[in-house]
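Recall from the previous lesson that a structure prediction takes nothing but the amino acid sequence as input. Here we apply that procedure to DUF218 domain-containing protein from Clostridium oryzae. The sequence below is the only information supplied.
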Amino acid sequence: MKVSSLKKADLTNEIIDKMLYEGMEDVEDNGDCIMVLGSMKAHKYRLPKAVSIYQDKRSSKLLVCGGKIISSESGLLSEAEMMRRKALEMGVPDKDILKEELSMTTKENMICSLLVLERAFILKNISNILVVTANYHMRRSLLMAQTYMPNWITFSTCPSDDAITRRDTWYKTEKGYQRVKEEAWKIICYINEKSIPDFEI
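The prediction returns the following tokens.
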């Protein structure tokens, strides 16, 4: 069935699993850049996955994204700056870290990253980007990347688990269930407003 045809009442656990998690595994591709999408806790849950990929030499550059401001021990920092500082602490050299800190949404993560990537690589030289975000957020992120970035670039999914939205546990707590169901509904809404393409599940 087409995702665009679904209503909120159709969002069973099985449907949500297919929408959000199916086929989003890390197949351990190499890429030109590791792109870490922002969130208030991206430095805690997403960045370690990205640094692990970097340390495995699957890519030599790390792009941290996100312009929302969060509070830290060092004061108010953008999501991207918080991740940059944590990446440095984890041993990633500053020369290998790119930063995008204008974006406020997943869609803007993609659009605002284009200029950073153009200046670092020249876009025509990029063939594959490794996308790191929470497992439940990966489908929307992938569709946004495929929609708003050049069509010759491919994207490899490198999901990270957070505390409550793992594929095997999200439905076991009310907080995890509500967060994941809301994500599934967002995808339906974005498809119906033509922000991302429809797909079959």
